[in-house]
Automatic annotation (TrEMBL):
Coiled coil: none annotated. Residues 3-235 form the ABC transporter domain. Keywords: ATP-binding, Cell membrane, Membrane, Nucleotide-binding, Translocase, Transport. This is ABC transporter ATP-binding protein.
């Protein structure tokens, strides 16, 4: 039982493809996150699964049934929007009950039970008489969640449900959504542009960019074995350092014309690229003559520091995570190098790292 997308495409206007050949299989009961930069088509894809937007090409099936032409109400799914979509003149209780009543296939006692259970689950029992305007942003979001919980739809779609909340509340609601999803065994398809949300909640992540699926994988696969330079750069704070590289006659790899690394694999002739996570770079303070970079700024984060530096020969910016007691400050002249734990991309940005499999399983 699953939701299957097969070569789904969307053009709102001729010659303007928003999504091209999107294919994926979303298993029942999994937390599936669709992530990508603004405008990449995430909401469009979710709305096509919901039946709110027509697909231009391809097939969507839910539990082996093609739903391309089914209206939203017949797809057995529920949707939570960024805007909450609550009725302002209805109480919390009535907002949650609304969809169940509209379907006219449940007895009053069943509706009562479902709504009360859902409100209990999201800790809103005490506020059930209030109107949406008498609630905080987080509480309104909980009402929207309760509505999804109360419906007996097995698939729940969420479009950036936390983006209106402040940072602290977002973390709390993230945990609540995650534990509700697990408790109810919901299939949750969740859209966000926030890579941290994707990493922390998903069973599988779909990365969208340039109207195409860049990669589908577990958070560990996406982080440790990114399909390409885009995916590698999208996940991780600060982002991975991508530097040009060439193979020397003696077999060593010269990175950015600044330092060398050892890698045990074939690499393309000519220029390619090396990806080094900020945790995998090494820094040493040296005299100016021996330096290949200089520190531009340092951020203290408590347990660690981020050192931002500029490579000497081309002003390329890099970021490096060091221990919090490491003594670096702006204008220090430094020697930058890297551990062996690096990624290799060809000139087109495709990840060709030989041992990436081992990295995922490490
Ligand atoms: N109804 C529409 N008619 C025409 N173009 C549209 C329509 N809806 C969306 N688009 C365009 O399709 C593209 C994808 O939009 P979509 O809202 O799916 O992206 P998104 O990844 O969800 O973005 P965001 O993260 O900013 O919400 C955008 O270029 C947008 O302008």
């Amino acid at each position: 039982m699953s939701t299957v997308l097969t070569n789904v495409s969307k053009q709102y206007e001729a010659d303007k493809t928003v999504l091209s050949d999107v294919s994926a299989e979303i298993q029942t009961g999994e937390f599936f996150v669709i992530v990508g930069p603004s405008g990449c088509g995430k909401s469009t894809l979710l709305r096509m699964i919901a039946g709110l937007t027509e697909i231009s090409d391809g097939r969507i099936s839910i539990d082996d049934k093609v739903v391309n032409n089914l209206p939203p109400k017949d797809r057995n799914l529920t949707m939570v929007f960024q805007s909450y979509a609550l009725f302002p003149f209805l109480s919390v209780w009535d907002n949650v009950a609304f969809g169940l009543k509209a379907r006219k296939d449940k007895s009053q006692s069943e509706i009562d039970e479902r709504v009360n259970n859902a409100l209990r689950m999201v800790n809103l029992e005490e506020l059930k008489e209030r109107k949406p305007r008498e609630l905080s942003g987080g509480q309104r979001q909980r009402v929207a969640l309760a509505r999804a919980v109360a419906s007996d739809a097995k698939i729940c779609l969420m479009d950036e449900p936390l983006s209106n909340l402040d940072a602290q509340l977002r973390i709390k609601m993230r945990q609540e959504i995650y534990s509700l999803q697990r408790k109810l065994g919901l299939t949750l398809i969740y859209v966000t542009h926030d890579q941290v949300e994707a990493m922390t909640m998903a069973d599988h992540i779909m990365v969208l960019h340039d109207s195409k699926v860049q990669q589908i994988g577990t958070p560990a696969e996406i982080y440790k074995k990114p399909a390409n330079e885009f995916v590698a750069s999208f996940f991780g704070v600060p982002p991975i350092n991508i530097l040009p590289a060439v193979k020397e006659d003696d077999g060593r790899i010269n990175v950015n014309d600044d330092f060398q690394v050892n890698i045990d694999q074939e690499v393309p002739t000519g220029e390619f690229k090396i990806g080094i996570r900020p945790t995998e770079m090494k820094l040493e303070k040296v005299e100016e003559l021996d330096a290949n970079a200089s520190v531009t700024s340092v951020e203290f984060l408590g347990d660690e520091k981020i050192v931002y530096a500029k490579m000497s020969n081309n002003d390329k910016e890099i970021s490096v995570i060091v221990e919090s007691n490491a003594d670096f400050k702006a204008y220090d002249t430094i020697q930058v190098s890297a551990t062996d734990n690096i990624l290799v991309f060809n000139a087109d940005g495709v990840n060709i790292t030989k041992n990436a499999e081992d990295v995922v399983n490490a």
